[in-house]
Design a protein that fits this description.
- This protein is mostly helical.
- The chain has two helices and no strands.
- Helix 1 packs antiparallel against helix 2.
């Protein structure tokens, strides 16, 4: 079970990096460069609010899984 958790920790880290890349390259920057006001607001919200929250959560969770925070403690 411990090895499965380690692999899933790596998965969460990679997922966080992938989501960050996708949010910045596919959603954020093209919306900022479109010139429309509604796209500009969506791009700013996506880049500066949603992306750090989502990526930070996924990467933190993956780090804690890899560091053994979720392992069962035996007495």
């Amino acid at each position: 079970m411990r090895t499965i958790k380690r692999y899933l920790g790596i998965f969460w880290l990679l997922l966080g990096l992938g989501v960050g890349y996708f949010n910045v390259i596919e959603f954020g920057l093209p919306k900022l460069q479109s010139g429309k006001q509604e796209d500009l607001v969506f791009g700013i919200i996506n880049l500066f609010i949603l992306t750090p929250i989502i990526v930070g959560g996924l990467v933190t969770f993956g780090y804690y899984v890899l560091s053994g925070e979720y392992d069962e403690k035996t007495k």
